[in-house]
Amino acid sequence: MSLIDFRYDITHFILSFLYFLLTIFCVISFIKRPKKHANTQQFVFYPLLILGVIVRSVFMFLQPFVMEKAMNLPNQANILLNSLPSFTFFSTYLIVLFIWVEIYIISYGHSIRSIRNLPTVFNICTCIMYIVLIVLYILDFTLYRPDYSDAVSAFRTLPEVIIGYYDVSCFILASLLFLFFGISLVVKFRRQQKNFAEDKRKVILKRITILTGLICFCFILRAAITLFSLVHLHLISMYWWFDGAYFSMLEVIPLSIMLYLLQVDRNKTKIPPSENNERTSLINSNSQQQQQIATTNQQQQQQTNNNNNNNKPTTTKKEK
C-alpha cells in the first residue's frame, strides 16, 4: 500500500468517525427536544438529518475499500451513497429556510393564512425534489450496466450528470433565498419588534446573522466545486486530502454549528409556560404558538381600530 493510499484511507476513516459523532449529536438533540410543544418540523428535521449523516458515514467508511479494490461497488451505487446525503441535508436546510419565512411573515405583519400555507408549500417542494431524484436513480440503475471501471464516484452517465447539475441548481437557488430572507430579517430585527420579546429578538438576530453568512458561503462554494467536478471529473478526487477538507468544512462543521444554534436555551433560564415560545430556538419553537402570536396581534389591532371607531360617536353624544 502506498503512502498516498494510506493517507486517503486514514482521511476517510476519520471522516466516517466524525459523521458517526454527528449522528450521536443529532440523536441526542432529537431525544432532548421539548416534548410539550412538539411540532411537525421536529419530526421531519431530525430524522432527515440522522439519515443523511448515517449514509454519509457509511459512504466514507466504504471508500478506502473501494479505492483499494477490496470491494466491487458499481459507480451507480457510489453516486447514490455520495449524492443522497446532499439532498437530505438540503431538506433540513430547507426546513430552516421555511422557519425564516414564517418569522419574516410574522415580523412584517402579513396575513396569518400565509403561515398556514407554508407546510403545504414545503411538502410539495420536498416531494417534487425526491420524486425527481428517485426517477434519476432508477434510470441510472436500469438503463446502464454496472460500471466498475473506476473506484472514485464520478458523474458518467446522463442521469448522473443530471443529478450533479440538479444538486448544483438546488444549492444555488437555496443560497439566494437564504440571502434574501436572511438580510431582510437582519434589517428588520435590528429594531424592536412588537411580535417578539426583546431577548428573543436579540437571539434571532444573532443566529440568523451567523447562519446567513455560513449557509450562503457553504452553498455557493460547494455548488462551484460540484460544478467543477462535473467538468473535470477526477481532477479533484485524485487528491487524498480533498475529501477531508471538503466534507469537514462544508458539511460537518456547518451542520454542527446549525444544530448548536438551533437548540433550546432551556439550561440558561427558567421560562414561564406562557412565555415558552419566546425563549425557544428556531427549529424547536411551536408553529402553532407563533401563529397564535400573529393572530393575537391582528385581533388586537382590529379591536383597537374598532374601539377608536366606537369612541367617536360616543364623544359626539357627550358633547351634545
Structure, described:
The chain is mainly α. The protein is built from ten helices and no strands. Residues 264-281 and 314-320 have low confidence and may be disordered.
Task: Name its key features.
320 residues
What is this entry, summarized?
By secondary structure, the chain is mainly alpha-helical.
Helix-strand blueprint:
Blueprint: H1 3-31, H2 40-67, H3 75-107, H4 112-143, H5 158-189, H6 198-232, H7 234-237, H8 242-261, H9 276-279, H10 287-319
Mean pLDDT: 80
Q: Could you state the order of secondary-structure elements as H and E?
A: HHHHHHHHHH
Number of helices: 10
Q: Report the sheet-strand fraction.
A: under 5%
In whole angstroms, the N-to-C terminal distance is: 103 Å
Task: Kindly report the oligomeric state of this protein.
Answer: single chain
If you compute it from the alpha carbons, what radius of gyration comes out, rounded to the nearest whole angstrom?
Answer: 24 Å
Q: Uncertain regions: pLDDT < 50 for 5+ in a row?
A: 264-281, 314-320
Give the beta-strand count: 0
Q: Helices and strands: which structural class?
A: mainly alpha
Globally, the shape reads elongated
Level of helix content?
A: over 70%
- Characterize the largest beta sheet: strand count, sense, and whether it forms a barrel: none
